[in-house]
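Subject line: Sequence and fold of a protein, written as structure tokens
Body of memo: The sequence and its backbone structure tokens, given next.
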Amino acid sequence: MRELVSDEHFSVDGTLLEAWASHKSFRPRGGSGDDGDDFHGEKRSNDTHVSATDPDARLIRKGKGKEAKLSYLANALMENRHGLLVAVDVRHASGTGEREGALDLLTAAGVKVGATLGADKGYDTQDFVAALKQRGIRPHIARHTKGRRSAIDGRAARDKGYATSLRIRKRIEQSFGWIKTIGGLRKLPLVAMSKVRGWVTWTFAAYNLIRLGGIGEWWEPSPT
């Protein structure tokens, strides 16, 4: 989808896709024991356990207080003018996967110096913002102001187009909602990274086709 890149303003986000594997399939690695069907109270992690149903799935929770599920991580890069997705990435779910995936997406899409990138607070880290600046990309990232210092300083937050980027970047969430409800990816129908990656990419492509039909209704000037 690289040829769709026609704007210098982008947004990125990631979402967890529930794997076709249950908690009961999450067994000790190397067959060194069996948790049995009653695993409550047992300490289990991706380092010590693996799903017998889908070894590429990873146990991860969406947030504090949320149930941990076997999942994959899908990342997407959107150009802001038309809301089309220009690059998609599927990888093992991890705590740093969204930021690592975002950098890979920028490379895959050939995003050039001077572009802006909108993202939510999860991307507001010193390392990620520094990586963007090293590439000459202006970070239009929502500031994380509770409990720690934001990597986005006040001057950057006052940059022309910053507020517009933060408003437009929420549009990428529509693609995630579509692939999970209309596209049927709320729970993945396939197992193994190669098959999941292909299925997710085709589903995002279908979203782009639907989106193309409504561009005239959704067009909004990009930030400058």
Residues 193-212 form the longest helix (20 residues). Residues 1-7 have pLDDT under 50 and may be disordered.
